[in-house]
User: What shape does this take?
Amino acid sequence: MLGPVILAASRSDQMRRFVSAAPGTKQVVDRFIAGETVDQVVPIITDAADKGLEVTLDVVGEDITTPEQAAAARDAYLELIERLKDLGLGAKAEMSVKLSMFGQALEGGHELALANVRPVVIAAAAIGTTVTLDAEDHTTLDSMFAIHEELRKDFPQTGCVIQSYLFRTEEDARRLAAAGSRVRIVKGAYKEPAEVAYQDKAEIDKAYVRIMRILMEGDGYPMIGSHDPRLISIAQELAHRAGRKLDEYEFQMLYGIRSDEHLRLAAEGHRMRVYTAYGTDWYGYFMRRLAEKPANLLFFARSILTKG
Ligand SMILES: Cc1cc2nc3c(=O)[nH]c(=O)nc-3n(C[C@H](O)[C@H](O)[C@H](O)COP(=O)(O)OP(=O)(O)OC[C@H]3O[C@@H](n4cnc5c(N)ncnc54)[C@H](O)[C@@H]3O)c2cc1C
Assistant: This one.
């Protein structure tokens, strides 16, 4: 019940100001956000690599309102890629991008987002890594898939994300699995209406299993984005039945969530990629993490009350 309320609050400027200024916020934010700068995130990438983990990096900041901010977002990724190149970490770190951050919601946004993301994809390829386009709310997806298709003409390894809560997703999965691209399947983190999305957790989970089966049996590279132990073991079973080797799919989890499970799966020989978000504009990302687990909100409220 609390989830939709928190997701609605994630769109409120007033709430953003309150949460950002609250005295106990930083302590809770630090659990989910790896740092504010490239310098702070580099040790986290090297530490992950030492532990046999890979990462996908998200420079947070989806709520931009001008083309200049969109260009700055592009430059932040280019700076990150340059650092990864200097450190020789290209093979261990890929990028996750939100097209909203690259200007997708602005006037002429589809072309603007494509123009901003392309140099990032080119720079990533030059250091031996890839970019995955995150899935945002359902109104943005046709544009995201069109940009994905366009980028794949030159960079077929460009990935995208699909969300099991949306009715449309099984069809998207069939198209993408046949095309052989890298596809991350997640449950979905936005507030979506009943006209387009399952509202019931059990239905979302059942759809997730159906979609995983499509991806595992297809020609693409499935990326299983979930912390749900039941879905993880079903993924292993489906991969086994589809005759996939351990390097023919991967698991992905978020930084700060079930970290012991990251290590357990990596120790079993799985490729495990940790979605690592960093930057100063963490509000939207943080609120989605609160919405996913009501206990996080209680922890957050307690931390505000004790520090306040
Ligand atoms: C790598 C990755 C990339 C993602 N990219 C996208 C994207 O592009 N678009 C999108 O809409 N969504 C994205 N998501 C979020 C996703 O849609 C879900 O909201 C999120 O993963 C929670 O679903 P779950 O599968 O972990 O299952 P759940 O049933 O929500 O969680 C299973 C268990 O995991 C733990 N857990 C899950 N979330 C939290 C949390 N926030 N805090 C503490 N514990 C938690 C709990 O123990 C919980 O019982 C991504 C998720 C991952 C892992």
